[in-house]
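In the current project phase, we have settled on a layout for protein records. A sample record is reproduced below.
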Amino acid sequence: MGKKGEQAKALPNYHEKDKWFTIAKVLLTLAPLVAVAYLQMLSGGGSLSSLLRQNPQITVTFLISMAGPFTAYLLGIAQKHLYEGDVPYMMSHLVMLFVAEAILRNTVYMIIMTVLMYFVYKMTGMSPAASLRAKWKDNFFRDLSGCIVLILFSSFCLFVSLRLGM
């Protein structure tokens, strides 16, 4: 009976940092609402759709904010895998989400992803590089397809924003 108690203590508590994951998902989900509120203020009571048609920079900013809920969704899926003990899945998702946020130039979300990576590293001891190596050998494209789509969308937004001089 002593061995089971020792094993239970040796396993990390993956729910230990749930509040931080929840805060990150809420902030990511609220990003489009904040963008819409900001755009409503810019329009001065006018039509939001006419503002989006008139100014392509505002349209790109709005599109970038729309990546937030999808990022939160991917983070939630990865968190479920962490609870199942699939640490490489979680850490590799965080790395890929960090890359997507870096391409989108979302500094706040980059910091959030970095903090979450640090928490997962402290809980599990798996580094981001080790997780990517482990995933590369085990269904990289299947498991990270959502992140790859997000990175492609982010790259498109970066291209358009650079063409617009943003």
Remarks:
- The chain is about 85% helix and 0% strand.
- The CA atoms of residues 20 and 57 lie 32 Å apart.
- The first helix runs from residue 2 to 10.
- Residues 1-9 have pLDDT under 50 and may be disordered.
